[in-house]
Specification:
It contains twelve helices and 14 strands. The chain has about 350 residues and is of the alpha/beta class. A nine-stranded mixed β-sheet has the order 5-4-6-7-1-8-13-12-11, with helices on both faces. A three-stranded mixed β-sheet has the order 3-2-14. A two-stranded antiparallel ribbon has the order 9-10. A hairpin with an 8-residue loop joins strand 9 and strand 10.
C-alpha cells in the first residue's frame, strides 16, 4: 500500500490549567490543555500543520493532487474548509478537495479515503489534515479537558518513510457524544462506563482484531501502539484487551494537551515517527461514537531523512504560555464586554 511521505503537527502555545476551568463550577481537573490564541482557529492550526508536513516530505505544495480534511469542529454547516487551506498552502486549483466532519473518527475517514484514491490511481500524492478545537459549554467536562491541535500527513506511493500496510474499520449505530445543529457545544450521556465498554473499547478492539486477522499479525508483531486518548486510562484498557503490552502504548498526552478529539492519535503518530527507527511496526487505533479505524504502519529506512525538517511535537509541547480562566473565556468568545 501507500505510505507516509511527510508528517507535521501544530499545537498552540497557550495552556489552561484544567483545575482553573473546573474549580469555579465546583469540579476538579488535573494537568493542563492547549487552547487557541486570540488569532488562531482550526483553519490556522491546520495550515501550520500542513506546512510542516510538506517540509517533512521535501516536496512542493503544488505537486499534491488532493487534500482530505477531517474535523469535528467545523464552524460551518454550508461551507468547506479545504478550499481555504488548499489556496493558503499554494496548491493548484484543480486538486481534489474533500472535507470529513461530524465524527471524532473524521481524520481516519479522510485517511482511508486518501488511501483508496491512491489505490485507484486517481492521485499520486495526497495530503491528509486533521484539526480540532471542539466547542464546550461553561462548566462542562469538555471545557475542562478539550484541547486544540492539528496534524497533517503527506501520503504517496513513492519516497515513503513509513508504509501503511493496511487498515480495518468497525462501525455501528452506537453513539455516546454528539452535537446537533441546534447545539452550541458537545453533549454526552454521562454514563462513562457504558461509553467506555460498549463504545470505545468494543469498537477499537474489533477494528484492531480484524486488522490483525487480515494481515496475519499478532499483538507481539507490533513495536508500538497508539490509541485515541480521550483520557489516560482508556488506551491501556484497550491494549490489555487485545494483548498489547502496556509499555508499547504511546505515553499519555492528555495531562499536557488535553483531549484532542479526532487528531489525538495522529498528533501522537507524528511524535512517534520523529523518534522512530526503521523496522518499527505501529498499531494505530482511532474512535468516534460508533466508528473505529485501525491501521498498521511499518517504519522504513527513509524515516531518518524526514526528521528535523520541521518543528516537532516535543518542541510544541515544551513551548507554552499560561492563561487564566477569564482570559480563556474571552479567547473562546464565551465572555464578551458590552459594546459601550
Amino acid at each position: 500500500m501507500a505510505g507516509i511521505v511527510g508528517y507535521g503537527v501544530y499545537v498552540p502555545q497557550y495552556r489552561l490549567k484544567q483545575a482553573d476551568a473546573a474549580m469555579p463550577w465546583g469540579g476538579f481537573g488535573m494537568g493542563e490543555k492547549a487552547v487557541c490564541g486570540w488569532d488562531e482557529d482550526i483553519v490556522s492550526m491546520a495550515a501550520e500543520a500542513m506546512e510542516n508536513a510538506v517540509k517533512s516530505a521535501g516536496i512542493k505544495a503544488n505537486t499534491i493532487d488532493a487534500l482530505f480534511l477531517g474535523t469535528a469542529s467545523t464552524p460551518y454547516l454550508e461551507q468547506h474548509l479545504s478550499p481555504i487551506l488548499a489556496q493558503t498552502l499554494g496548491m493548484a486549483p484543480q486538486v481534489q478537495l474533500l472535507d470529513f466532519t461530524g465524527s471524532l473518527n473524521s481524520v481516519s475517514n479522510a485517511m482511508t479515503s486518501c488511501l483508496d484514491a491512491l489505490a485507484a490511481k486517481r492521485i499520486k500524492t495526497g495530503l491528509v489534515v486533521g484539526t480540532e478545537n471542539r466547542a464546550a459549554g461553561p462548566g462542562s467536562e469538555g471545557e475542562v479537558n478539550f484541547g486544540a491541535a492539528a496534524a497533517a500527513f503527506v501520503i504517496g506511493n513513492s519516497d515513503s518513510a513509513a508504509e501503511i500496510e493496511g487498515f480495518s474499520t468497525y462501525q455501528t449505530m452506537f453513539y455516546d457524544r454528539w452535537r446537533a445543529t441546534k447545539d452550541s457545544w458537545v453533549s454526552n450521556w454521562f454514563d462513562y462506563r457504558f461509553a467506555r465498554e460498549y463504545g470505545y473499547q468494543k469498537h477499537v478492539s474489533e477494528a484492531t482484531g480484524d486488522l490483525m486477522t487480515k494481515l496475519e499479525k499478532k499483538p507481539d508483531d507490533f513495536t508500538n501502539a497508539i490509541f485515541y486518548q480521550a483520557d489516560g486510562r482508556i488506551p491501556a484498557l484497550v491494549a490489555k484487551h487485545i494483548g498489547i503490552k502496556a509499555d508499547k502504548v504511546f505515553p499519555d498526552l492528555t495531562p499536557a494537551l488535553g483531549d484532542l478529539g479526532s487528531v489525538s492519535a495522529y498528533v501522537c503518530l507524528s511524535g512517534l515517527l520523529e523518534n522512530s527507527q526503521a523496522g518499527q511496526r505501529i498499531l494505530l487505533g482511532t474512535y468516534g461514537a460508533g466508528s473505529a479505524t485501525a491501521f498498521s504502519i511499518l517504519v522504513g529506512d527513509k524515516i531518518e531523512a524526514k526528521k528535523g525538517r520541521a518543528k516537532n511535537l516535543q518542541q510544541y509541547v515544551e513551548k507554552k504560555l499560561y492563561v487564566d480562566y477569564p482570559a480563556y473565556l474571552r479567547m473562546m468568545g464565551t465572555l464578551s464586554r458590552v459594546p459601550y
